[in-house]
Amino acid sequence: RKGRRRVNTIESPAWFAYKKPVSREVDPYKLWYASNGLYLVAYDHRSEDLRVFAVERINSVSLTNRRFDPSGFDFEKFAQSAFVMIGGDSQEVEIRFSKQQAPYIRERTWHPSQSIVDGRKGGIVLKLKVADFGEIKRWLIGFGADALVVKPAGLRREIAAECARMSKRRVGPK
User: Fold this and answer.
1) Measured on CA atoms in the order 130, 133, 136, 140, is the torsion positive or negative?
2) What is the pLDDT of residues 89-126, one digit of tens each?
């Protein structure tokens, strides 16, 4: 059966949000090396969505008797929507960077969709279309007060809440 692949069952250990090992039936599309790790890009029947699985978190793989046709999956399109490695439906993000960070932001291509507009007082606004806010949120927190999410407001609120949680954590002895 040319062009058809077998559905796999993968088992992941108890980790993070799952207190017990998790078994998932997946349609494997691609193994992808990104961010110093190997990932399985697959349709997950449990969540009924496309997911990216860290290979080091997969304990076992077994083949099922079912088959699927991978021809409808466009990996290049998927990868272009990812900020780092989580792809999907893109959403527009605008970030205002300070004058101090502007040269650093300008000198790199952070994402294929990016555009940069001059801002006030020597700063810039970086515009991107990305699929996953978790990845960009972690990246932006590293810039501290030198980065401000202009839109979407939901991402700005998520970062503010995360920073508030960070500031409440006690670091070291009193």
Assistant:
1) positive
2) 788 999 999 999 998 888 888 888 889 999 889 999 99
